[in-house]
Amino acid sequence: MPDLNLETCRIAPNVKLGRNVVIRDFVNLYGCEVGDDSRIGTFVEIQKGARIGCNCKIQSHTFVCEGVTIEDNVFIGHNVTFINDLFPRAVRHDGQLQGEQDWVCIPTVVRSGASIGSSVTILCGVTIGENSLVGAGSVVVKDVPAGAVVAGNPARMLRALK
User: Fold this and answer.
1) Any idea what the CATH number is for the domain that residue 158 is in?
2) Looking at 78, 113, 127, 133, which residue is catalytic?
3) Cα angle for residues 91, 94, 95 (degrees, 5° grid)
4) Residue 78 catalytic?
């Protein structure tokens, strides 16, 4: 049974939670999967179709949108934002509000053992490599190689981890 307070969390019935998941207050989960022994911090939203692996730590105020896969043993810092649409618009060409059929969800993958610093923005369509490190405040616009340390806006390779 997950460790959570149902009075302060919104967890849809279609959410799949693994064993020993810890969910802090004011979390919004719907249509997603969270693996065994993962921890979800306060004020996190994880949308439908997103997948969080086992032994992950998702810090407070993070937004994980549809199309994001986070593999096992990943650390996601505070206030990390994933983006899943390259051309976001509120309305269609005819002026009507866009619906789900009016955009393309572009997937993003965070490979096992990666660490993402606080306040990182990750554009869609990228892969964050295994055991890599993304420095705080970075904007990731292209793939991060396995074992790399990247930082900046846009994020650039600084060195390889030892």
Assistant:
1) 2.160.10.10
2) 78
3) 40
4) yes
